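REQUEST ID: PR-0412
SUBMITTED BY: lab tech R.K.
PRIORITY: routine
TASK: structure prediction, single protein chain
INPUT:
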Amino acid sequence: MTIDELKGQIRKLNSKAGQMKMDLHDLAEGLPTDYKKLMDVAAETYEIYRELDELKQQLKKLENAK
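STATUS: complete
OUTPUT:
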């Protein structure tokens, strides 16, 4: 994967991560309503941020290898 491809993936995932963070925030503010959704939304948010961190680490390695 090239640096530009990684940057594109990171931009897309950053956008999705931001939306998930807002969704999680909105859900938390509305508690106890929809509390049953909390674990699913939190797990999905965690996974997106984990993947984003992984991609950023890959990008850093590629950039440092130049």
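NOTES: The helical segments are 3-29, 38-65.
REVIEWED BY: pending
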